[in-house]
Amino acid sequence: MRIARLLALCFVAALAQPAVAADLRLGYIDQDLRPFLIGDGPEIPARPGVTIELAQRAAAKVGARLQLTRMPLPRLIEEVRAGRQDGVLSLRYSADRTADLVFPLRAGRPDPDRHVARLSYSFYKRRDNSVAWDGTRLTGLQGPVAVGGSPLISKRVKSLGAQIVRSDTGTQMFGMLAMYRVDAVVTLDAMADRLLPVQGYSQIEKLSPPLVVEEFYVPVSKAFYAANRELAERFWQALGDLRDATYAELTPSYLF
After folding, report:
1. Binning pLDDT at 50, 70 and 90, where does residue 14 land?
2. Which of 18, 37, 67, 125 could crosslink 25 through cysteines, CB 3.0-4.6 Å?
3. Which residues belong to the signal peptide in this entry (predicted)?
């Protein structure tokens, strides 16, 4: 009788112990893409960016111990393939990447409800010039276009026949536009739509449709998914559940 009671007490005590947190090793690119990712190089700053803070909150919600590393994307993909990283924090979906990675899917396609970030880039111009964009053709340019964001955005603008000027900040780009040094700007909507009213540039307007709209996900390796399927699915769901409120709360503090 005493043995049975002792076993029962041990069982209850075991249940009362907190579960051991699972490790989730995610890497992300070592390039500044504010407000989503902050800073260049391998260091992770104290204020790492909205996307990183979202991932931290999602990991805490599902009881995962998040380990973050920054490195160039080609090396990161190799690290995931080799099993030294579990996944990539913020990556575009492409069919060829599914050979090594598992993305959050719905009906065989990337699940738009479980992306970690949506980046929309648009053209902005002065109201007094004739620059026009119909989603296919860019017309009316007399001067260069200031471009922020990844090299892929610059490549896309160049493909439209524009001369580009690289710029790191929205303040600089819109200052160049207001001073007639460039004819248009291409940058993140999230940044521009908050910055323009603060800067008072009423002579600048956004053109529709966006030049590029991209959704980014947190794919994991096939080996990690096979061993931790429930954790991966819960983490992806937590990203979707927390994303909009987290971005609304944190984005303004990262833009100015």
Report:
1. very low
2. 67
3. 1-21
Per-residue pLDDT tens over the stretch 54-81: 999 999 999 999 999 999 999 999 999 9
List strand residue ranges (DSSP E) for the chain, in order.
22-28, 64-70, 87-88, 91-92, 101-102, 105-106, 109-110, 117-126, 132-133, 138-139, 145-147, 164-166, 184-188, 204-206, 212-217, 220-221
The three-state (H, E, C) secondary structure of 170-206, written as one string: HHHHHHHHHCCCCCEEEEEHHHHHHHHHHHCCCCEEE
Question: Does the pLDDT of residue 167 top 80, yes or no?
Answer: yes
Which domains, from first to last, does the chain contain? 21-116+218-255 (3.40.190.10), 119-213 (3.40.190.10)
DSSP single-letter state for residue 27: E
**Structure tokens belonging to residue 169:** 């900040």
The answer to whether the CB of 90 falls within 8 A of the CB of 28 is: yes
Q: Which two tokens stand for residue 132?
A: 């026009």
Give residue for tokens 């399927």.
Answer: 229
Number of CB atoms found within 10 A of residue 67's CB: 13
| pTM of this structure | 0.76
Tokens of 239: 């990203």
pLDDT surpasses 60 at 93: yes
With a CB cutoff of 8 Å and minimum separation 6, the contacts of 127 are 203, 204, 205
Q: N- to C-terminal Cα distance for the chain?
A: 69
Per DSSP, the chain holds a count of helices (H) and strands (E) of 8, 16
